[in-house]
Recover the amino acids of this structure.
């Protein structure tokens, strides 16, 4: 009789643990005997500083549309795409528009709304080790933009109106956080220490609430919600949930080198590889990627013909040379999205690929950096979302449609039982999902 092993067998190494893909020698169970669907995932790819509209806008509507110069790198995924136009953001300037990208509402006095990635994570991330992950490539900036701290544009993810989630930009730190063995003595000691700190913070906060004003009590309540999120993460570290989904193909678990890569292409793709690995292994089902800070002045002189920083060229004043640079950088970002989608498509999950079981939101916080145009945002959804998304078309919505309507539609699609989004939506969007 052949040797059998349990379906939930794990590979364990120094500092890491990982579920095996399905093997013939695994003992079948009643649940495994049934056709198990992989989980659905949600990914956001944020690009800062807008685009040159004439280089972004597609021609044609419905299924009869042609890709624009910026979107040409995604030609292989045209049938997996939903190009959206007509959606308007709110607020003014880089900080407010970056903050609104996933919340649909403008930051006022450092207060925003909850972001749609976090609403979705509350619905589909409760059985994974991480409800969501937030990765990026650019360190946060300091200073002020008018009355708004520029540091608020470091992220598009907000777990509450006052709690923003900063992205991890170190590939090795992200890898170790996602995949280190939670049962190792070092990991358990670190988690226990964090829990002790959280316990102290909770006790102090509760004491402070007794003497606080009504407005301060509200702020403390919002703060405690963030602390409870840390508590839940600690609990997942000390008692990690059994994965509900095991990858069918063996994941590549190479640990990235220490430090930040000097090459921007390499840094970007290392972080995207980590997102794919986290989704493949069901470490998380929600990932948000800040390709750069929302007020990014990153240098792109490694691209042919580019001499200016990204923010500078976005204020192009319709000068031909700057428009060309601006479009070159936007195409480069589209090429990074193409890399992400290609890696997701390569992972077979039985009923299709990882991309088939996902929905990827790709876009920018403004239409055009020249004037900080907030109308008709550049937005694309990619992935079939297990057959729910009506892909392969361009949907043009009525001018003035709030961005929050997209967020409400996405949240409901992933199971959120809400009728409005941050009190600014006016309804849902038709035509996106079956």
């Amino acid at each position: 009789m052949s040797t059998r092993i349990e379906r939930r067998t794990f590979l364990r190494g120094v500092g890491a643990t990982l579920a095996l893909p399905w093997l013939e020698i695994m003992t079948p169970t009643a649940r495994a005997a049934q056709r198990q669907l992989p989980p659905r995932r949600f990914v956001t790819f944020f690009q800062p500083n807008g685009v040159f509209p004439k280089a972004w806008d597609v021609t044609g509507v419905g299924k009869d549309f042609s890709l624009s110069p910026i979107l040409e790198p995604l030609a292989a995924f045209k049938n997996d795409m939903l190009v959206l136009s007509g959606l308007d953001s709110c607020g003014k300037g880089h900080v407010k528009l970056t903050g609104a990208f996933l919340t649909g509402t403008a930051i006022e006095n450092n207060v925003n709304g909850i972001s749609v990635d976090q609403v979705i994570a509350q619905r589909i991330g409760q059985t994974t080790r991480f409800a969501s992950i937030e990765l990026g490539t650019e360190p946060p900036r300091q200073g002020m933009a008018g009355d708004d701290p520029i540091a608020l544009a470091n992220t598009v993810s907000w777990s509450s109106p006052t709690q923003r989630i900063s992205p991890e930009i170190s590939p090795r730190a992200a890898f170790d956080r996602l995949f280190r063995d939670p049962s190792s003595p070092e990991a358990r000691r670190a988690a226990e220490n964090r829990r002790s700190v959280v316990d102290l913070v909770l006790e102090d906060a509760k004491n402070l609430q007794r003497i606080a004003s009504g407005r301060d009590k509200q702020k403390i309540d919002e703060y405690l919600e963030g602390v409870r999120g840390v508590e839940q993460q600690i609990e997942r570290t000390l008692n990690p949930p059994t994965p509900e989904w095991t990858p069918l193909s063996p994941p590549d678990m190479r640990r990235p080198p220490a430090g930040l890569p000097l090459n921007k292409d390499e840094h970007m793709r290392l972080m995207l590889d980590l997102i794919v690995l986290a989704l493949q292994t069901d470490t998380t089902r929600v990932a948000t990627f800040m390709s750069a800070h929302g007020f990014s002045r990153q240098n792109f002189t490694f691209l042919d013909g580019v001499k200016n920083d990204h923010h500078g060229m976005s204020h192009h004043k319709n000068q031909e040379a700057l428009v060309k640079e601006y479009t070159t950088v936007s195409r480069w970002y589209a090429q990074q999205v193409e890399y992400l989608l290609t890696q997701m498509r390569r992972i077979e999950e039985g009923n299709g690929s990882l991309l088939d079981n996902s929905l990827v939101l790709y876009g920018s916080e403004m239409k055009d950096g020249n004037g900080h145009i907030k109308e008709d945002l550049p937005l694309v959804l990619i992935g079939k979302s297990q057959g729910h998304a009506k892909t392969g078309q361009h949907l043009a919505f009525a001018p003035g449609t709030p961005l929050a309507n997209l967020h409400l539609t996405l949240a409901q699609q992933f199971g959120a039982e809400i009728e409005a989004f941050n009190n600014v939506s006016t309804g849902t969007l038709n035509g996106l999902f079956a």
Q: What stands out?
A: Residues 27-34 have pLDDT under 50 and may be disordered. The radius of gyration is 22 Å. DSSP finds eleven helices and 13 strands in the chain. The domain at 38-165+263-413 is CATH 3.40.720 (Alkaline Phosphatase, subunit A).
